[in-house]
Amino acid sequence: MTAKPLNIASTIIGAVQNVTKEWARQRKSEERDRSRERHRYDRLVRDDRITIRDAAFSVMEEAYLKASDNGRLPARPRQIMYCARPEILALTEKDYLDDRYFTQTLLPDYVNEHPATDNWDIVWDARGHFAEPHTSNEIALGTLEVRDYLGLRAQSRDAVSVDKNVLYPTLGPEHRFNTVLFIEKEGFGPLFVAEHLAERYDLAIMSTKGMSVTASRMLLDRLAARGVERILVLHDFDISGFSIFGTLGVSGRRYRFANRIRLIDIGLRLVDVEAIDLQSEPVAVSGWPKRMMTLRRHGATAAEIAFLKDERVELNAMTSPELIAFIEGKLKEHGVEKIVPQDAIIQAHARHLFESEFADAAVAKLRPKIQKQAAAAELPADLRQQIEAGLVKVPTGAWDHALAAIVAKLASEAKKGKR
Hints:
419 residues; alpha/beta; Dna Topoisomerase Vi A Subunit, Chain: A, domain 2; 3 domains; six-stranded mixed sheet; two-stranded antiparallel sheet; 56% helix; 7% strand; flat
């Protein structure tokens, strides 16, 4: 048998590898261990020990107090974010903070978990509108606007008045409306005004940009305690529409309801889409199993779920006449009627209107004499200076406020002089 020629190069390489392989294995192991050690240290120091959430919670009170001048003034979420961000970034050794994550998650979570924040005056942005029928009262659905609206109550007018406003004094639902139409879209207001929808049905109308905000939930909660019997919810026929209806009256981390509100889903639903023969549009839904569970939880039928896997239908698919007819049909279906209060309210207001008519007649007879007296009244030479002095005393007033106070004093003195 002939021996194979010896490959000297291969032999040398193999010998070197045999000698060094244990050393190389050990070296790689040490490098891996050091890498793991550094990674573990980074996690302990930068993530586990101080996360963005932990950092935000640690500086939140200080940031609120800075933004609000120690709680003296209202503060918006983004103002608090700007006060907190430098410290959060320094603590976490990061160079970016998602402002939406702060304002929509971190701040609400902190407020929800810390009862001491109940007296914090945080003002959330308006994302919709609410309008009463007949009164021209309309507010944006922001924290301050809703708070002001709920804090005000109608005041009875003087028994004898020349006020020609024939409406009973209301601010809120009492003797004015008991139904709210909630629509998930802004922009239909001009159509509703043109059709006098609110006035014909004594209906308050609330519109939002998508999902309801804290202010809108607070408003519905308080209105329910003051006589609102039902909230009719109008939404797109899509996954978001079902979620808007399904979460509108549910307590969450941002707001907890104190009253039971009666929500009624008036569509769009599949039966409506088919009855009106509305156009649908294709939609790509991610995470379908989870979306399907959401739809089922919010009351969608099996047929609706199957439809919504690939398609959706907007309220905008209806023409203006179709939308008005659709809403009116739902209002009649759910028994929405004109408001006529109790007899005691009717009789009291009738007597007030009599008094107003009699007062107008009496003033009409006295008007020439009153005008003559006003023309003959002597005005002080330093009237301008008195106005300026009044504005120094009351800096928040206007010149005509100051003038009215001066004239009231002069008139009082004139009447005393005649006595």
